[in-house]
Amino acid sequence: MARVAIVTGGTRGIGEAISLALQKTGLTVAATYAGNAERAEAFAARTGIAVYQWDVADYDACQAGCAKVAADLGDVDIVVNNAGITRDGTILKLSYDDWKAVIDTNLGGCFNMAKAVFPGMRTRKWGRIVNIGSINGQAGQYGQVNYAAAKSGIHGFTKALAQEGARAGVTVNAIAPGYIDTDMVAAVPADVLEKIVAKIPVGRLGQASEIARGVVFLCSEEGGFVTGSTLSINGGQHMY
Ligand code: CAA
User: Probe ligand 1: pick from 85, 91, 142, max atoms within 8 Å of CB?
Assistant: First the structure.
């Protein structure tokens, strides 16, 4: 039977590309989404990928959601923690709510999902967790203390959990995308984005499929000796 993978935020942007790429390798994929049901249903109809709505920042919702996926599709062997939001602003303007929403979703979501699936992976002696970090968690970014802190936290979380999973066949890795051609990056003011792209050595934004390719490798059988690593896919913008 095909292994089951959950991709959080898996119906749009980088997550959509990851869901499709994992499906292509023969996995059974479940994609979660936070709010846009119409778009998610259209995605499900187009791709045949099952979609589930829950908020990754909600611990109980992750427990219930992962149990539902397991009941519907089978034991969950792979989780890609991709769901993330931005609430950009300099610290003078950033509210506590902007801080908390980004930390709870981007970093808290990784914890909540791992709590739901890690015990089963350990018991079955096989698992893959891939956390989507960011170049801005490695290098920082003006106007993103919340996002950079959450993404930087993901990189530490990955290395710690990797140590807990290693003996049980559960690998935990991160990918740190640079600026990728998605709605999230399109929301950056054009003049700011232009300056950012000018600093990318390959001279362009990345494609979501270029991140998905890395996820496929980390989730594969052959990726079993790779754990606790961060794969930077950023066009050379930050060499870490
Ligand atoms: N370093 C130093 N100073 C900077 C700066 C920088 N990088 N960027 C701007 N400034 C300065 C400006 O020159 C300006 O100075 P003056 O007032 O003296 O002219 C001052 O800071 C205010 O700048 P803004 O006008 O840009 O301030 P704002 O409040 O209007 O906007 C902002 C702030 C919302 C953070 C805006 O700059 C912005 O959107 N920046 C982009 C943030 C970004 O890259 N987000 C990434 C989103 S995509 C993503 O996160 C995916 C991923 O993983 C990569």
Answer: 142
Strand order through the sheet with 230-233 = 50-53, 28-33, 4-7, 76-81, 127-132, 170-177, 230-233
On average, the pLDDT of the chain sits at 97
Ligand 1 contact, 88 CB (< 6 A): yes
In a domain, 239, yes or no: no
* 157 domain-assigned: yes
- Give the model confidence (pLDDT) of 116-165 as tens digits: 999 999 999 999 999 999 999 999 999 999 999 999 999 999 999 999 99
Distance CA 57, CA 105 (A): 5
Question: What pTM was computed for the model?
Answer: 0.96
Residue 233 bridge partners (DSSP): 177
How many whole angstroms from 86 Cα to the centroid of ligand 1? 13
Ligand 1 pocket test target in 87, 90, 199 with most atoms within 8 Å of CB: 90
The verdict on whether 147 is a catalytic residue reads yes
Asked if the structure places residue 238 within a domain, the reply is: no
Buried b (16+ CB within 10 A) or exposed e, 18-45: bbbbbbeeebbbbbbbbeeeeebeebbe
Q: From the CB of 134, is ligand 1 less than 6 Å away?
A: yes
Ligand 1, closest atom to CA 188? 39
Average pLDDT over every residue of 35-51 = 96
CATH of the domain at 12: 3.40.50.720
Catalytic residue among 33, 52, 59, 147: 147
User: How many domains does the chain divide into?
Assistant: 1
